[in-house]
Structures are given as C-alpha cells and as structure tokens.
Specification:
This is Molybdopterin-synthase adenylyltransferase. With about 230 residues, the chain is α/β, with parallel strands linked by helices. It is built from 8 helices and 8 strands, in the order H-E-H-E-H-E-H-E-H-E-E-H-H-H-E-E. The chain starts with 12 loop residues before the first helix and ends with a strand.
C-alpha cells in the first residue's frame, strides 16, 4: 500500500502488515501523548486508545501538536481521535475523556498489547505501573522538563518507576512547570517512546529495559543509565 511505502526497508512487509493487529493504550494526550498518537497512527498501529480527561488551554499551544486556537476548551482525547480520522482512517482510535484512577485503571488498560505513559503526575504514573503489572502488560515511560527527557521500557514486575521516583509517592509532583516545556522536547521523548513500542511489538532490537535513556539537549549529552 502506497501509504506505508516509506515504512519499508526499515520494516519488512510482514512486520508492517502486523502493526494493524496491535492495540496500544496512550495515557495522556498532551505534549508527549499527542506526538505519540500521531506517530503510532501514521506508522499504522491498528488500534489506539487515547485516554485523557483534560481539555486544551491556550498555554498548550507552544508544544501540544493536537492543540490549535480552534480546539481550546475541547477534549484532548476526542481531538486525538478527530486528528487520526484525518491522518489515517484505516486505524481505529478510541477516545476516553477521563482521568486514570484506581477505580478505572484496569478496565481501561486491559486487552492492550502495550501501554504508553505520557502523564505528568508521579502518583498516576505509579498507578499505571501497578495496573500494568496486575494485567501483565508492558509499558513505555517518558518524561520531560526543560531541555531534558528520559525514557524507559517497563515489563510487569520490573517496578522501574520505584527506582526513578525515590520520593514520597503520594504527594510528589513533576518539575515540568518549574523548568518549562519548549516545543521540541515532547516530540523528542515521544519519538523514543514510539520506537520502543514498535521494537517491543515486533520483537526487534534492544529495548530500554532496566535502563533509562537520559537526554540533555542543552549539553548535547545522551546517556544510558542502568536501573
């Protein structure tokens, strides 16, 4: 199919065809999550669940690809679905305009092949990790702040986030608002997360499992940190 011809050579035809059979849940449809959904949809992941109970605000316009002046006040999850209907109508996007919680996490995440963490709340990230562990689903984590990004892939039972966030996990907050989020950093983290998703689904390459990619764009340093 002409749509996916530029996937070829990087992916085999069989691998490309298989992408339509996978289900990926993206939790958070803002800065990172919007780019993740964009890339997953364009490469041909067949089923994407977009989860976010928030709406777009003017302050999102500097970095969130799903936002525009026309979508201020609109559901982030629903706009992800609308966007993908225009970009790739061959795939199915399920929009869930709700926040992940203890009550709904397992029902939302079940029956997916991979879960992508595009959140900005440490307690909710840890809930996501616990829920994926319970459901035996791998997840890909990404976080950003200022010039910095970090990504890791977490298999059920790895509990990697417990090592990254060695803080009071009930009240801990990320530092995104303190350090800012320029336009380029969510796209960077999302690209690495999506590459991890594709490798995981296709069983190719080396995953960032039990190690974390830490990128410092200000100093142009790319480090792999054992976890």
């Amino acid at each position: 199919m002409e749509r996916y011809v530029r996937n070829m050579k990087t992916l085999s035809k069989e691998e490309n065809d298989n992408l339509k059979n996978f289900k990926v849940c993206v939790v958070g449809c803002g800065g990172i999550g919007g780019y993740v959904i964009e890339m997953l949809g364009r490469i041909g992941i067949g089923n994407i669940t977009a989860v976010d109970g928030d709406v777009f605000e003017e302050s999102n316009l500097n970095r969130q690809i799903l936002s525009s002046t026309d979508t201020i006040g609109f559901s982030k999850a629903l706009e992800a679905k609308v966007r993908m209907e225009k970009v790739n109508p061959l795939i199915e996007v399920k929009a869930l305009g709700k926040m992940l919680s203890e009550d709904n996490a397992c029902s939302i995440l079940s029956n997916h092949d991979v879960v992508v963490d595009a959140l900005d709340s440490i307690p909710v990230r840890l809930l996501l990790q616990r829920s994926c562990k319970k459901l035996n689903i791998p997840m890909v984590y990404g976080a950003i702040a200022g010039w910095y990004a970090q990504v890791t892939t977490i298999f059920p039972g790895d509990d990697t986030l417990n090592k990254i966030y060695n803080v009071d996990k009930r009240t801990a907050k990320g530092i995104e608002k303190e350090m800012g989020n320029p336009s380029f950093i969510p796209a960077l983290a999302a690209s690495i997360e999506v590459s991890e998703v594709i490798k995981l689904l296709l069983g190719r390459g080396e995953l960032l499992r039990k190690k974390m990619a830490f990128i410092d764009l200000l100093s142009t340093e790319y480090d792999i940190i054992p976890l």
